[in-house]
Amino acid sequence: MAGDAANNYWWPFVKFFQYKLKLKSRILAIVAVIISASLIIGIAAALVVPSVAQEAERTLNLMRTHIIREKAMFAYTSFMD
Prior knowledge:
Radius of gyration: 26 Å
Structural class: mainly alpha
């Protein structure tokens, strides 16, 4: 059953590559779909990953600043008691 769902999902792409782009073999169409999907996913990841990494770095910097300030505040209040 699970294999049928996966086949039904990719079949329109394979059909497009095979008949509209006139690839002679279904194997070539399947390989073309795999390569195209890999390229699309790779390009999307290349566009998204740098901004995610940048935001993660900003968050870490904010956390470090908050922890340093909290430690300083704790030391100050402990000193005043």
